């Protein structure tokens, strides 16, 4: 399904400023309408034809297109592995990577890739669009062109300006594992409420160097690609049926639960709920508390309604997004059979995904 299909190289400029690999997975950016008026994925060759200005960049571009292009609602950890493998296999050959991806699950994929590619020294810029590239008012052209420019940007030492996994969308560059899709209609589809923008594109692209990670140039890229999907996400709501929650928490092979709580990490103190959480923890499951709020953070113990969670051993996800929490937990559970070691890694920041203060 995710075998890379074709490599299309643009005519090589004589002395290119940078050489980039575009990984095309699908999404609205490259879709066309079928006879029923439904959007379906489309071939990249025609996309290149639709952006003639691409050839005005002094860049060597290579396109790796997946055999089966997907709407990102069909993304799975195999999709993340395929993107990761394409980057790892070509890491030394390119200065940067642009991943064309559907917007619906882009924040999950960008989060996953940020955890898979540790000590990254090159840009991995996810982008996509709300309207297909063929639409008259499309946002695809600007998004793709700016993503390419950012992926090729270097400082005076020749190092990448943004050596991170990011999402570029609607004139803004966000850290991938801090981003959330917040809009399905407007072009301004992504937010990063708990972390500043990494760059803003206007007449010029303004990079916020103080917000961008600095890698350890002495260390090589470290790549992990296994995910354990025996995890679940439970969003709390008033009126939850105890049986459903108990059933989920008692599932014997469930290893981890992301609990989407209210406000600063609060949950009901009903005895049935406390018993269900206690039982799951006693059975060796890991429970990670993240907030339903778009901004702010979990502060277990601030209210009585989160004190119990803290006392029972529920982990605080601080200001993690649910998307990043899921991807991080799935990757760590696959790597760590030891529950205490897994817990320790889950609450330790590793690539700018959470702030403990
Ligand atoms: N359904 C599309 C996708 O995620 C939405 C988009 O790309 N704008 O693939």
Could you tell me the CATH topology label of the largest domain.
Answer: Rossmann fold
Task: Name the assembly state.
Answer: single chain
Helical amount: 25-40%
Amino- and carboxy-terminal Cα gap: 42 Å
Largest beta sheet: strand ordering: 1-5-2-6-8-9-10-13-14
CATH class of the largest domain: Alpha Beta
Compute the number of structural domains.
2
Q: Percent of residues in beta strands?
A: 15-25%
Query: How many strands appear in the DSSP assignment?
Result: 19
Average predicted confidence as pLDDT: 94
**Biggest pleated sheet:** 9 strands, mixed
CATH-assigned homologous superfamily of the largest domain: L-asparaginase, N-terminal domain
The unique ligands bound to this protein are:
asparagine
Order of helices and strands: EEEEHEHEHEEHEEEEEEEEHEHEHEHH
From the spread of the alpha carbons, the general shape counts as globular
Uncertain segments? none
Radius of gyration: 21 Å
Structural class: alpha/beta
Helix run count:
9
Known CATH architecture of the largest domain: 3-Layer(aba) Sandwich
Topology:
Blueprint: E1 4-9, E2 18-26, E3 32-33, E4 39-40, H1 44-50, E5 59-70, H2 77-90, E6 96-100, H3 106-116, E7 117-118, E8 124-127, H4 140-152, E9 165-169, E10 172-175, E11 180-181, E12 190-191, E13 199-201, E14 205-207, E15 222-223, E16 231-235, H5 242-250, E17 256-261, H6 271-282, E18 286-291, H7 304-312, E19 315-316, H8 322-335, H9 339-346
Parallel strand pairs: 2-5, 2-6, 6-8, 8-9, 16-17, 17-18, 18-19
Antiparallel strand pairs: 1-5, 3-4, 7-15, 9-10, 10-13, 11-12, 13-14
Helix pairs in contact: 2-3, 3-8, 5-6, 8-9
The protein binds asparagine (ASN).
Residues 26-28, 71-73, 102-104, 128, 130 line the site of asparagine.
Protein name: asparaginase
Binding site for substrate: 72, 103-104
Domain Asparaginase/glutaminase C-terminal: 230-343
């Amino acid at each position: 399904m995710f075998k890379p299909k074709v490599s299309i190289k643009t005519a090589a400029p004589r002395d290119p400023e940078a050489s980039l690999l575009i990984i095309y997975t699908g999404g609205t950016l490259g879709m066309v309408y079928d006879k029923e008026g439904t959007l379906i994925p489309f071939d990249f060759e025609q996309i290149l034809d639709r952006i003639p200005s691409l050839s005005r960049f002094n860049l060597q571009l290579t396109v790796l297109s997946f055999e089966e292009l997907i709407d990102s609602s069909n993304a799975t950890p195999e999709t993340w592995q395929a993107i990761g493998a394409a980057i790892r296999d070509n890491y030394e050959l390119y200065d940067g990577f642009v991943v064309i991806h559907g917007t619906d699950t882009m924040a999950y994929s960008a989060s996953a890739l940020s955890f898979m590619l540790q000590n990254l020294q090159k840009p991995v810029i996810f982008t996509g669009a709300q309207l297909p590239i063929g639409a008259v008012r499309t946002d695809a052209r600007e998004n793709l062109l700016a993503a390419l420019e950012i992926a090729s940007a270097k400082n005076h030492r020749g190092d990448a300006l943004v050596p991170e996994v990011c999402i570029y969308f609607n004139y803004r560059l966000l850290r991938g594992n801090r981003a959330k899709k917040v809009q399905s209609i407007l072009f301004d589809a992504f937010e990063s409420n708990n972390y500043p923008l990494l760059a803003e594109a206007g007449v010029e692209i303004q990079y916020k160097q103080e917000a961008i990670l600095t890698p350890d140039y002495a260390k090589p890229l470290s790549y992990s690609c296994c995910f354990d999907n025996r995890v679940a996400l439970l969003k709390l709501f008033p009126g939850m049926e105890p049986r459903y929650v108990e059933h989920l928490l008692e599932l014997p092979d469930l290893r981890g639960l992301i609990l989407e709580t209210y406000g600063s990490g609060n949950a009901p103190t009903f005895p049935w709920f406390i018993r269900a959480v206690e039982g799951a923890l006693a059975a060796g499951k890991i429970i990670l508390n993240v907030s339903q709020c778009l901004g702010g953070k979990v502060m277990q113990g601030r209210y009585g309604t989160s004190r119990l969670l803290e006392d029972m051993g529920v982990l605080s996800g601080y200001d993690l997004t649910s998307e990043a929490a899921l991807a991080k937990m799935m990757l760590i559970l696959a790597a760590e059979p030891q529950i205490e070691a897994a817990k320790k890694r889950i609450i330790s920041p590793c690539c700018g995904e959470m702030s403990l203060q």
